[in-house]
Amino acid sequence: MPAPSNLRGITYALASMGVFATHDVIIKLLGAHYPSLQVLFFSSLLSFPLVSLILLQARTPGTLRPNRPGWVAARTGLAMTAGICGFFAFSMLPLAQVYAILFASPLLITLLSIPILGERVGIHRWAAVALGLCGVLIVLRPGSGESLSIGHLAALLAALCSASAAVITRKLGGNERPLVLLMWPMLGNLVLTGASLSLAYAPMQLSHLAMAGMIAVLGLCGGFLSILAYRAGEAAIVAPMQYSQIIWATIYGWFIFGEGLDRPTIIGAGVIITSGLYIVWRESSRGSDTIRPVIVSRLRVDTVTTPKATLLNRILTGRSNSRH
């Protein structure tokens, strides 16, 4: 029986994933009417007043000048690409398929931690990664007669870029202020998507503009619930709760979009989740934060452009080390 604190952590984490799933549903709803870059622009723009209120609570003053500009620039580009590709994938594919592909992100973190963090990966985790990637192939079903769409490629790229950004964040550690890691992707995202409006723009109804604002609100609410989850419970217990998004995707997909779960998606998602849980279990048994990149990254495997929970927590507490 989990300890009461872990039960609270699980409850907060499940609530966080439900809020994030609702956030993704709104992206899909708006994506049916407007270009995904336009949806991304307005959700980013409307998030700035909320983020500004949070930054006023920051305990450590400073500038936006990075100490390691090369790595910060790389992370910024990756985070922006993940956001763009994620919004596009949600607008094009069934929710469950997008989540199943994005669930590969912890597997990719394990692989990327080798060249970037100098992590040693044993045979057990290599086997888990290989199994998980087989699960991705099951979801994509190449050679089955159903051609891969640009939406599938966008989801794969979102998973890769999101994992890369998470590992770079770990590499930067306490060398960069969380404000720098938070604001550069948001500013870059706003400039890039704003420029795209000159290429494709559809006038937005007021109700749809309000929905774009809800994306920003839900992103922050989900982030704060995630902070509460990791403060209340052990990371190794809280982290697997991200996979509950597949349940929300099934419910929302069925009732709102008329989507059903096909057999390849069910089997592939099951394989990916099993391998991800095994990696979390292996890392939790190893002790040191420096060799647990998947758990410590606390990655919500999606492409939310609102602030990450880890960065919000570090800003509000005044901590500079990424393991907190």
Count of runs of 4 or more consecutive helical residues: 14
Q: What share of the residues does DSSP label as strand, in percent?
A: under 5%
Main β-sheet description: none
Structural class: mainly alpha
Sequence stretches where pLDDT stays below 50 over 5 or more residues: none
Order of helices and strands: HHHHHHHHHHHHHH
- Overall tally of domains: 1
Task: Report the end-to-end length measured between terminal Cα atoms.
Answer: 26 Å
Tertiary shape? globular
Rg calc:
19 Å
Number of β-strand runs? 0
Mean pLDDT equals 83
State the helical fraction.
over 70%
Architecture overview:
With 324 residues, this protein is mainly α. The chain is 71% helix and 0% strand. The protein contains 14 helices and no strands. It has helices at 4-31, 36-55, 69-92, 95-102, 105-117, 123-140, 150-172, 178-196, 206-232, 235-238, 245-255, 263-284, 293-297, 309-317. Helix 1 runs parallel beside helix 11 (245-255), helix 2 runs antiparallel to helix 8 (178-196) and helix 3 packs antiparallel against helix 7 (150-172). The longest helix has 28 residues, at 4-31. The radius of gyration is 19 Å and the shape is globular. The model has no long low-confidence stretch (mean pLDDT 83).
